[in-house]
Amino acid sequence: MKEKGEEFSAEELSKILEKHRRDRNGLISILLEVQKEFGYLPKEAMKRVAEFLGMKPVDVWGVATFFNQFRLTPLGENHVKVCMGTACHLAGGRLVAEALERELSIKVGETSDDGYFSLERVACIGCCMLAPVTVIKDRIYPKMSPFKVEESLIPYRQESKPED
Amino acid sequence: MTFEEIRKRSQDQWEALDKGVYVLVGTATCGRAAGALDVIDAFKSELSRRSIDVPIIHVGCIGLCYAEPLVIISRPESLRIVYHNITPDLVSRLVEGYIIGDDPCLELALGTLETDGREAPYIPELARFEHELRLILRRCGYIDPENIHHYIANGGYASLEKALRMRPEEIIEEVKKSGLRGRGGAGFPTGFKWEACRQAEGATKYVVCNADEGDPGAFMDRVILESDPQEVIEGMIIAGWAMGAQRGYIYVRAEYPLAIERIRSALRQGEELGILGDDVLGSGFCFHIDIVEGAGAFVSGAETALIAAMEGRRSEPRVRPPYPAEYGLWGCPTLLNNVKTFSYIPWIIEHGADGFNSIGTAKSAGTAVFTLAGKVEFPGLAEVPMGTPLRRVVYDIAGGMRNGKKFKAAQIGGPSGGCIPESLLDIPIDFDVLREAGSMMGSGGMIFMDEDDCAVDTARFFLDFTTKESCGKCTMCRMGTLQLLSIMEDISNGKAKIEDLELLQQLSEDVKMGSLCGLGRSAPNPILTTLRYFNDEYRAHILEKHCPALVCRDLIAYHIIPDKCDRACEHCILVCPTEAIKGEKGEIKVIDQEKCSKCGACLEVCPPEYNAVAKISPISKLPPRVIKKEYSAIGAG
Lengths: 164, 637
What we know:
Helix content of chain B: 40-55%
Oligomer: heterodimer
Strand content of chain A: 5-15%
CATH topology of the largest domain in chain A: Glutaredoxin
CATH superfamily of the largest domain in chain B: NADH-ubiquinone oxidoreductase 51kDa subunit
Shape of chain B: globular
């Protein structure tokens, strides 16, 4: 059985690989580009990258799981990042993260079944003076609190409602 | 084109700009987060509505993050005025006032950059700037980071031109004499690193800039790269010339997309003008710089781990020696310095070693760049001479603690650093003093904590971070930090025994001893310093199940004070996510402790005139009546 979200375009992948030399030094930049294209690193794509660079798939997997940037599962349509840097932690970032988990009914690191939302914790986005910070899609929500969570999600919920 | 011709062109361009009215808007990531792009849109539409053509220039960050979005309006023969916290609806007022008319809109201004004795505060005389000394931040926020001519017109690349006329050994001697120490954290003397790399055998050498700023709470490298990337590039080219290297790399976190974009544009412009490339400024010296995007790993800050990542491998450090200066990237001699270290180089070449080492303390020359975050009035970025007392940073530069709270501690250097308590507020900050105090300069991230922050919880937070970021190569770091974290969790949960404190101390020291790189060697610092300076707090958690700062969740309870509850108000009931608050309209509200998730939403919404929700620790202090009532309620339900 095909895993959920495992579809990826082999053609797009080939386009990315064409731009690179068959040099394993370029592995991380290739993986970053693959992720930019597909939103995550599909297993099949990693196998193809390994083949291309003449590496064992496990070595590619080893690099992909080492770095924080790489994701092995697809993101939701509305990706929510909750900052857990030092300043955000002191300002109550954990409470915001928990409120998001409750509102979205998913845990940090998960994507909702309908694929509308995914929730991720990030270490610091460098906006410490606005702590605690949450990023929804690309918009930064400063000075969050558990109380503001529900409201901040409203526009995304409506936007993502399927048109019946 | 010779450098003279380039400089002439830059100066002409800058003067032409200065002859008219122009607007600078801070659009570094921090400014954007505060809404700077909306402000720019508002300026554009307001100006086009009035058919006025005024350049609006994206600049970096002048370090006053609390004042973002920040706008500077410059008019010929008049004062340059800095406006703070500008929102789109204030834009028409500024256009009407200071772009078209003669009203300087001083009520919106933070101050002026020149003074004519008028009422507006003169920015260089603000308490903050009086204590700052800006060497590497001096252009940040005043020039367009994507226009190389702005950099050159403001003194840029003159040092490179000078350096190319010096012999490499002379440059290295100058850097050695300046006393510059690496700004990446450990403070290794830069000149010695340069000398080792220069003397290392090998035809191919590399210069690498470490811009993998991973400390959660430090962002100065990002600000420098977003505000004045040419300064870093100039430092790297000079280093390349001194090393005899032909190629440089900037390893920058992928989490900093704007920094990457601005470096990319800076490199392209450098190449176009022949400042980078096969023949740097006509000297015959060939130097190219590429960007390598890091995929996010705190351990990559360690130089050998960074090299592993650049080679496309898992970012794990290795045993040194050999040092990267002899055996680095792809086995070639490699000079690896932090962003700020490279930024200082043009200044040192321009002003000479003595100009630099006359600033700061005997063993830590020059200035230090800090990010100020946490519970202070004016968070942001500051550059101060080494040796500045911490008290001055907290009270004069960062404006003191917010909401009149009491200073408790400053965590310096992020997860690798340690906290400095109030009793040490007067220590002069430099590499060695901080190390003696159990902390370290590290990234230069400073987080200020007040009485509402728990020392135990903060140390636990950092351990949680380092445990996740440990690469796993060294057993003591991989398993030791995990064990430390589990003890810290026991303490904040109230499950620890008093003997655990000794174990914590011992294990912390073992982890430091048994780890290869800076991550493991410094990961226990937050624990060791809090154990040293806030021992009472640890004991209260263990012996009394009491969290004095009311933070550790398992040791606190939320309680509605019956006498203060308004009865008619239902704010807390409506907001409680777990339906833990009971009470009909007109009745006193009561929190069901079994259901309460301790999110604090009730405390947040309870109107200030009632202020009826309180945090209590230890939990045993809850009035027995309340506990009984709730248990009976649960029984009935």
